[in-house]
Design goal:
Strand 11 and strand 12 form a beta hairpin. It is globular and about 70 Å long. The longest helix is centred in the N-terminal third of the chain and has 18 residues. The chain is built from ten helices and 17 strands. The protein has a domain of 74 residues: Immunoglobulin-like. With 382 residues, it is α+β, with helices and mostly antiparallel strands.
Length: 382
C-alpha cells in the first residue's frame, strides 16, 4: 500500500461519510496485516489479501491518516474501528496494537472461527475460556484461542480495555463424519467429512457447517440431535450420533456468560458477526440478551436513571443547545464525559476551574448525559 493508495482510499471514506451522515463511522477489516493471505477456497467471494512486512508501517500510517482526515473534515465524532485477529502468531506478523490503538475508538476482537472444518478435529469455534482437555496441536491454540486470552493479550499491549470489544458468532461451524468418542458427545473427536450449512458457499467441496443461529436453535429440538454444554469453556455444541454431524455455536446461555465476562473485565462491549443470524422474526432473542446485559444492567445506563442524576453542583447553559454550552461547577484537570442515552461514550473534554465551554456542534440532535467526577446532568442538543 503506497501513500498515494492510502490517500485515494481515505478520500473515498471521507466522501462516503459526508454523503451518508447517518452512518456512525468506518470499520477496517484487513485480514491480516503482514500476511500474504490466499483466497479462501470455501468462499467464492473471498479473493484473499496480499501482504508482507511493509504492512507493519503501512497499517499504522493508514489508521493515523484516517484519524487526521476525520479531524480535518469535521468528522471527529465519527467512529474509526478495526476487526482484529486473536491469533497471536498472526498479530506478531503485523503491527503492535500499541502503535495504532491511539487512532482508534474500538478494536473489535474476532474471538470466533478459532476452530472449524479447516481442521480435522472438532472443537469450539468461540470458547470464552480454555478447556484443559483441548487436544489442539500447539500450546498457542490450547491456551489462547479463546476470548479470555484474546482480551488479556490486547490489554497487555497497552490497549485500554474500554476500546476492546469481544466477538460473538451468531452462526455455527461444523464437521461431518465425527465419531462419538468415549463421552458420546463428539467433542474433541476426529472428523472424516464435512457438513454443509445454509450459510456455506454452495460450490465448495469442503463446507464449514455454517448455519445462522435461528436455524441451529431449531436443530436443538430436532430428532437425532443432542445438545451439550461445556461448562469450562462456556460453549454449547450439538451432536448427531446417527449421522456423525457436529456443530459448535453461541446460544443464549453462552451469550449471557460472554456479556458477564465483558462486564467483569471492564471491556468496552461486544461485536456480533452477524446480526442476521438472530431470530429477527421472533423477538430477536440474542439481541435482547445483549441489550439487557450490557445496557439495562450497565453502570453507564444507571447514570441515565433520574435518581442517579446529581445536578445540584453543576449546571448547563443554554440547555437545549445547538453549538456551545457552558458547564458550571467543573474542576481544573478533571475529565468531562459525554454519553448517549444507550450508555456509549461519545466525547470527552478537559475540565477547567469553575466552568468549561463545551463544543457540541459535532453531536447529533438528541439527549446526552454529561458526567464529571461523581456529578451528572442531562443535555439536549437541537
Amino acid at each position: 500500500m503506497t501513500k498515494e493508495g492510502r490517500t485515494t482510499f481515505i478520500n473515498s471514506v471521507i466522501a462516503f461519510l459526508k454523503q451518508y451522515p447517518f452512518i456512525d463511522g468506518i470499520d477496517i477489516d484487513w485480514e491480516y496485516p503482514g500476511v500474504n493471505r490466499a483466497a479462501d477456497p470455501n468462499d467464492s467471494a473471498d479473493k484473499g489479501c496480499p501482504g508482507g512486512p511493509e504492512d507493519v508501517a503501512n497499517y499504522v500510517s493508514l489508521m493515523k491518516e484516517l484519524r487526521e482526515a476525520y479531524n480535518n473534515n469535521g468528522l471527529s465524532n465519527k467512529l474509526l474501528t478495526i476487526a482484529a485477529t486473536i491469533n497471536q502468531n498472526t498479530i506478531a506478523q503485523g503491527s503492535n496494537p500499541k502503535d495504532y490503538e491511539q487512532y482508534l475508538d474500538i478494536i473489535n476482537l474476532m474471538s470466533y472461527d478459532a476452530h472449524g472444518a479447516f481442521e480435522r478435529v472438532t472443537n469450539h469455534h468461540a470458547a470464552i475460556y480454555p478447556n484443559p482437555s483441548d487436544p489442539s496441536a500447539t500450546k498457542l491454540e490450547r491456551e489462547t484461542f479463546n476470548a479470555q486470552a484474546a482480551g488479556a493479550y490486547y490489554a497487555s499491549c497497552g490497549v485500554p480495555k474500554s476500546k476492546i470489544t469481544i466477538g460473538s458468532p451468531w452462526y455455527s461451524r461444523g464437521w461431518g463424519g465425527v465419531s462419538a468418542g468415549n463421552k458420546g458427545d463428539g467433542l474433541f473427536q476426529n472428523a472424516t467429512g464435512y457438513l454443509r450449512g445454509t450459510w456455506d458457499d454452495t460450490s465448495t467441496p469442503t463446507p464449514g457447517g455454517q448455519y445462522p443461529w435461528f436455524e441451529v436453535k431449531k436443530l436443538e429440538t430436532t430428532s437425532g440431535w443432542t445438545k451439550y454444554y461445556d461448562n469450562i469453556s462456556q460453549a454449547p455444541y450439538l451432536f448427531n450420533a446417527s449421522t456423525g454431524a457436529f456443530l459448535t455455536y453461541e446460544d443464549e446461555q453462552s451469550l449471557e456468560a460472554r456479556c458477564n465476562f465483558i462486564k467483569d473485565n471492564n471491556y468496552g462491549g461486544i461485536i456480533v458477526w452477524e446480526i442476521s443470524g438472530d431470530d429477527l422474526n421472533n423477538g430477536a432473542p440474542l439481541t435482547s440478551i445483549v441489550y439487557r446485559e450490557l445496557y439495562e444492567k450497565s453502570m453507564t445506563t444507571d447514570i441515565i436513571n433520574n435518581e442517579n442524576i446529581t445536578e445540584h453542583n453543576i449546571s448547563l447553559y443554554p440547555n437545549p443547545a445547538t453549538d456551545y454550552v457552558e458547564l458550571s461547577g467543573t474542576t481544573e484537570g478533571t475529565t468531562i464525559y459525554v454519553f448517549n442515552m444507550v450508555g456509549r461514550l461519545i466525547q470527552t473534554y478537559n475540565g477547567n476551574s469553575n466552568s468549561t465551554t463545551l463544543d457540541v456542534t459535532g453531536l447529533n440532535e438528541g439527549l446526552y448525559i454529561i458526567k464529571t467526577g461523581d456529578k451528572s446532568i442531562k443535555l439536549q442538543v437541537k
